[in-house]
Amino acid sequence: MRFNEELAHIATYQAGKPIEEIVRTFGLDEKDVIKLASNENPYGASPSVVECIRHNAHKVSLYPDDSMHALISRLQQHYGIEYGQCIVGSGSDQIIELCMHAKATKSSKILMAGITFAMYEIYAKHIGAQVIRTPSKEHNLAEFYELFTQHKPDIVFFCVPNNPLGECVDAKELYRLLAHIEQESSGETLVVIDGAYQEFASYKDSSKHIDPRDLINRFANAIYLGTFSKVYGLGGMRVGYGIAQENIIQALYKLRAPFNITTLSLAAACVALEDQEFVRATLEKNFTQMLRYEEFAESRGISYIPSYTNFITLVLENPYDSSVICDTLLRQGIIIRNLASYGINAFRITIGTQEQNTRVLLALTESMR
């Protein structure tokens, strides 16, 4: 059977290995497996969210409110935006896909960092668009401007902070570049600010903070993406959102499938947004525990990328091999993310609980003797 020719140029996205697969492969007990590969919240979700899901379980046979009024109203209040400036998706990934289909064509060019979230490129290739990457692996704004001037892309992606590396540009510096992009494209280049980890960056350093309302009021060609999968602990519920001026949101709605968020997911997200104390506690514990990985790396002369997220990336040199280390830990029931597929000898570790991190650091110490 013949398929769309563009599929031949697309590599299948490799998600972090699930716990169930490791249990089957290595004969481990599920309770002995630690998954720190997908940047999930190791503390789970707010207890109020768990209770909400239990209370609404009888509604699983019903389609959700397709207007998503309750969640959009809460996001409107949380960010101080207009009701029509928000769209909800099945994870922020779906909003990325909608942006691509709304703006890009086969003749389009899509600009992004040298190493960044893989789905930007995958969705671009769905369209047959040309992907332009900066020479630097991390976000180098001077390179972004040079390539923008040269190629005049239809979409520019900024992952702020960046996944899978963890670095984060300053908001003021980013805004200066966005002003150039808006002016020189006459507002025709769509700028996507992926803020999946913004809560972490804003907590650690206020200079990294991006206010979605301020962003879209300054730049009518920008859309901000957020998610409930990270700091809110709802990775399994798949809820993301986009915030932009109404003309952008209206265009995306034309592409959105009906009932794209489940009834329970909507209810859980509404409650999660209200429990900001859970969010604050998660952020505090995250960066306290991250210090342990930084100290581990520094004590052994291992490079790491200063992180503004809920993960840390360690960059290795000979004789260490990220593939060997990740496989060694995997056989012990510790799942971390090997970044060899990005062309770098590095691995990414989600910051776990104190107990999880103790076990991981002991395993790393043994494997890197």
From TrEMBL:
Keywords: Amino-acid biosynthesis, Aminotransferase, Histidine biosynthesis, Pyridoxal phosphate, Transferase. The keyword Cytoplasm does not apply. The keyword Cell wall biogenesis/degradation does not apply. InterPro entries: Aminotransferase_I/II_large (IPR004839), HisP_aminotrans (IPR005861), HistidinolP_aminotransfase (IPR050106), PyrdxlP-dep_Trfase (IPR015424), PyrdxlP-dep_Trfase_major (IPR015421), PyrdxlP-dep_Trfase_small (IPR015422). The modification N6-(pyridoxal phosphate)lysine is found at residue 230. GO terms for biological process: L-histidine biosynthetic process. Pathway: Amino-acid biosynthesis; L-histidine biosynthesis; L-histidine from 5-phospho-alpha-D-ribose 1-diphosphate: step 7/9. Gene3D superfamilies: Aspartate Aminotransferase, domain 1, Type I PLP-dependent aspartate aminotransferase-like (Major domain). Its EC number is 2.6.1.9. Coiled coil: none annotated. Its cofactor is pyridoxal 5'-phosphate. Residues 31-362 form the Aminotransferase class I/classII large domain. One of its GO terms (molecular function) is histidinol-phosphate transaminase activity. Homodimer. Belongs to the class-II pyridoxal-phosphate-dependent aminotransferase family. Histidinol-phosphate aminotransferase subfamily. This is Histidinol-phosphate aminotransferase. It comes from Helicobacter canis NCTC 12740. The gene is hisC.
